[in-house]
Structure formats: C-alpha cells, structure tokens
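lol forgot to send this yesterday, sorry. struct tokens for the thing we talked abt
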C-alpha cells in the first residue's frame, strides 16, 4: 500500500495577517546583507521599482503555465519554494559577478534584473502564505495535559521568583554575556515599571510578572532566530537544556509546543527549514532507548505473550480481559526488573466489570506503561480483545479509537509502542490477515501510518503473530508493534 504523503506545512498562522496592507513602495531584500546599503533612493525608484512590479506580473504568468502540469497542493508549494530559492541565488550571483570585476562601479550592477527577481520572490511568498493559511490550524495541537503541565511549571517559576524559568540567563546585566545565554531583562523591566507607574495610561495588567516571563520566552526565540550558522541552533538548545534543573522532558515539550510556534512569527515562509532542524534535536532527546534496548523490549514482550499462551485455557476461565492484562504485567515485571525498569497499570477506574466489557466488545480501559529508574516513560502497551474484524473503517469505532488512543495517551512521542490483541475468533489465521488489512485502512489523523512490516526478523509462532507499523509523528517515525494472541489454540 502506498504511504500517504507528508504534509509540507504543519504550522499555525493565527499571528500572521493576510489582510495587512504593505506599502506600494516596499522592497524585500534578497541580497546578501553586506550589499543592502548600496541601494539608495535613486537606484530604487529609477532601476528597481518598475521592474519589481514586472516581476510580480511575470510570476503570475509562470503560475498559469505551472497549473497545467501540477496536480496537488504539495507540488505547487514545492514549486513556489523553488522559485524563491532561484530568485535569491541569481541575485547573489549578480553581486558575485560585480565583486569579481575588480573596479567596476555600482552603475555596472544589473539592478533591473534584481528588481524583477525581487518581485518574483515577493509574489511567490505571498502565495505560500495564502496556501499555508488554508491548512487546519489545529493539526499539530498538543495534548491538553502538556499545556497544563507547562503552565503549572510557569506558576512555580513565578512563585519561587525564578522568572527566567527555562533558560540560562546572564546573572547580572553588566557581566559579559556568554555564548548562547539569554540577556538579563530584569533591569529593563523594573526601569519600565518605575517610568510608567504614575501614568494614567496603564492597563490592569501593568506590572504582572507573567509578562516578564513572556519577555524571556520572546527573547529566547528571537536569539535563536538570529543564530548563524543555523546548525548552531542545536547547540543553543542543548546549552539551555543542560541548564534546566527540572525534568528534562518539560523543556523539550516547551520548545516543541510553545517556542516553535512562536518562532514562526520571525521565520515566516522559511519556517520549514527551522522546524526540521529543531525537530531533529527534539527527536534526539526523545529517543529514550537504543537499538539493543528496543530489541530487548520487543523480545521480552514476545516472550511473556508466549508464556501466557502456555496456560491460556486456564486464564480464559477468568472471563475478564483486565485480568489477562494483570497476568501479562506481572510476567513482564519480572522480565525487565534486571534493567531497573518498572511497569505500571494506568487504569482509570480499577477492574472493569465483565458485564460492562460485554457491552463494549471486551475493550479494556487500561494500558501498561514501562518506565526507567528515573520514572521516565520508555514505552506503552495497549491491550484489547478481538471478537471480529470490521469490514471497513466506517463501520467501526471501537477498534479504531483504541488504536489511535495509544498516541493520545503518550503525548511525549516515545517509540516503540505495543498493541496486544486477544483474538477470540475461531479462525486465527484468517482474522490476523483481516486485521492487517483493516489497520492499513484506518485514518490515524496526524499519526498517519507510513508502512506495515510483517517480516521483522523474529521467530514465527503458530498462535502468536507479530507485525510492525511505522507512523509519522512530528517529523519522526514511531514504531508500533501489533501482537496477536490466539485465545483458541
């Protein structure tokens, strides 16, 4: 099955107005900064301005031709980005040729062509902004629990008078600012309060210390935007990550769900470049397990499923799917104990009554969480009973919602994850094949599947099936293993 294409733009545009009117006599600089001072008023109005307007018209004509051969929004936005890159590169080459002439004055520079290229660039960026705004604004919304947790940590920072909060900040305004440190804003803040405290024109929020915390967020984001070369952004994030005194995953969530959207206000249509780079750093921090540990976890869960199968007829007498989960949990607890890992039950309401289970196709309301010695989540296991497979996605809600739930319950984005199904049908092989076909039909929303692998390098068993599905989440591949236990061997 062909995997779904990745979205190109995954960002919110609430802070960008498409209605903002720009001055007729505006000029977007696409030249290296060292050359911008050579464009004076005469050069702009006599050699650039009219050609800038011609460039916008030319882009429209080019777009008419491109629409004849493009078939998707993704293809079109790729084309707009390519046009922008080409305009910038050609303008740079014009200046390089001028510098290589040794002695040619500014009148030799082809400002007419630069004006045309600038107009093309501006018009392409306008269309990109429009197309981005068409995207749903909630596609990348974080789980509410993440925002609650971050807002709670903000409150703790304020109450403890640790206003810089997440960042390594210059200790005193007169001390030399170390590389990657954020400027100390306290002195400016108190000076401003003192300056305006007697003014009649202040709001009820005047002096609210939360605004100082917001200033640090903005200053941190602005400092990151200015970093050149951009590859050092990872070092910048690492510097503040290492200085953060609380649980590190809080800092990573803060960067992804609060700083990255704010950064878009500075980066605009170049945001994808920054987004990819920052997600590389985020994914490095969230990679809790190395390859050996991932193999150990997969083999351990496979092993306890086989142990469960040894006495499956005895366990079936319980007629409670939650009790199956407890048995697997206890087996796995012994298996992973030597790694100093632990496993806990995430039940919201204790043991589910068998009558309730029968009304919900036996779906359990609990999952299992695996943690390391520091209490950080390493993986999660979702369990369910399978009595039949729906013909298609539209005729089912329970299984689909259960499979999507494993992402919703793990907002950190850990990998791998596991789904264990207790198959209670009479035809195990046939149900397994239907299950594989069914899960490839499911629309996982922002957690779309990329591929399904049935040959994953582990031994095959008659009454236990294992497959791996790869999902796309925040520019990262999430592995979800599906284990199918035959309850009627």
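and heres what i got for the seq, position by position
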């Amino acid at each position: 099955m062909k995997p779904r294409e990745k979205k190109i733009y995954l960002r919110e545009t609430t802070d960008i107005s498409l209605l903002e009117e720009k001055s007729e006599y505006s000029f977007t600089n696409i030249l290296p900064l060292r050359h911008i001072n050579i464009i004076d008023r005469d050069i702009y109005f006599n050699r650039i301005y009219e050609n800038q307007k011609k460039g916008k018209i030319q882009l429209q004509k080019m777009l008419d031709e491109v629409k004849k051969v493009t078939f998707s929004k993704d293809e079109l936005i790729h084309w707009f980005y390519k046009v922008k890159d080409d305009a910038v590169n050609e303008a740079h080459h014009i200046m390089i040729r001028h510098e290589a002439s040794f002695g040619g004055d500014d009148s030799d520079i082809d400002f007419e062509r630069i004006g045309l290229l600038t107009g093309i660039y501006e018009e392409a960026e306008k269309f990109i902004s429009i197309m981005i705004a068409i995207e749903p604004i909630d596609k990348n919304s974080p789980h509410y629990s993440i925002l609650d947790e971050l807002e709670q940590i903000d409150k703790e920072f304020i109450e403890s008078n640790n206003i810089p909060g997440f960042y390594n900040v210059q200790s005193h305004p007169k001390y030399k600012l170390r590389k990657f440190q954020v400027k100390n804003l306290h002195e400016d803040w108190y000076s401003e309060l003192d300056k305006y405290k007697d003014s009649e024109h202040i709001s009820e929020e005047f002096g609210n210390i939360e605004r100082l915390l917001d200033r640090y967020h903005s200053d941190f984001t602005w400092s990151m935007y200015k970093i050149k070369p951009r590859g050092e952004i990872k070092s910048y994030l690492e510097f503040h990550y290492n200085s953060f005194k609380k649980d590190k995953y809080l800092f990573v969530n803060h960067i992804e769900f609060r700083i990255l959207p704010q950064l878009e206000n500075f980066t605009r249509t170049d945001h994808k470049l920054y987004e990819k780079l920052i997600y590389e750093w985020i994914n490095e921090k969230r990679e809790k397990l190395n390859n050996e540990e991932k193999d150990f976890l997969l083999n351990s869960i496979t092993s306890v499923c086989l142990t469960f199968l040894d006495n499956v007829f005895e366990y079936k007498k319980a007629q409670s799917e939650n009790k199956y989960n407890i048995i697997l949990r206890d087996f796995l607890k012994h298996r992973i104990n030597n790694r100093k890992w632990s496993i806990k039950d995430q039940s919201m309401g204790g043991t589910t009554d068998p009558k309730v289970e029968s009304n919900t196709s036996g779906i359990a309301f609990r999952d299992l969480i695996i943690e390391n010695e520091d209490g950080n989540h390493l993986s999660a296991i979702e369990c369910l009973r399978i009595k039949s497979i729906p013909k298609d996605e539209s005729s089912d809600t329970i299984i689909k919602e259960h499979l999507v739930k494993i992402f919703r319950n793990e907002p950190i984005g850990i990998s791998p994850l596991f789904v264990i199904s207790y198959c209670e049908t009479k035809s195990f092989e046939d149900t397994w094949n239907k299950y594989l076909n069914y899960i490839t039909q499911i629309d996982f929303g922002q957690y779309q599947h990329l591929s399904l692998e049935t040959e994953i390098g582990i031994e095959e068993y008659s009454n236990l099936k294992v497959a791996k599905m790869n999902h796309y989440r925040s520019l990262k591949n999430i592995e979800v293993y599906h284990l199918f236990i035959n309850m009627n061997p």
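The longest helix spans residues 73-100. anyway ping me if u want another try
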